[in-house]
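Re: that chain you flagged

S.,

Sorry for the slow reply, it's been a week of failed gels. I finally had a moment to sit down with the sequence you sent. For the record, here it is as I used it:
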Amino acid sequence: MPSLVLGLQQWAYAQTEVSANDLKPMMDSFAETKTSYKLTRCAAVFYALSLRTGEKKMGKEGMKQNDAIIIKFWSGATTLLMGSEGITDDLEQAYEIVGRDTQNIANLYVERFHSNYAETGHAFAMDEVFMSDFNLCQMLLKSNDTK
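Prediction finished late last night. Pasting the structure tokens below so you have them in one place:
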């Protein structure tokens, strides 16, 4: 069974009007943003990490664990779009919205990774936005606030 990352890579590359430099830490607007956005952005954090790191470095088991995290965040966001946030009542549409947004945000992180590596030799370890978001998503994952 192919990994979720490979499936997402086949998703059409989406252009965004926001540049990677415009991306701000999620914590800066945490209270004001909808939970579905937070969960979508967390899915993007782990997806971008998979794209940059790859199966060779993460290993099959690492990729599998990362895919499970992405799915957990993605499912939570999809459920919220259909439920309490009332964006849509169509599961397929909610799934596509979260997928599109996950891809768009992941593209921004990956763009940052490329720039960071070119400038410093470190793709994400010294990226304050990514590390802040990664840590926040880890906290959300541990608190089980992805439902």
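What I noticed first: Residues 48 and 96 are 18 Å apart (CA to CA).

Talk soon,
D.
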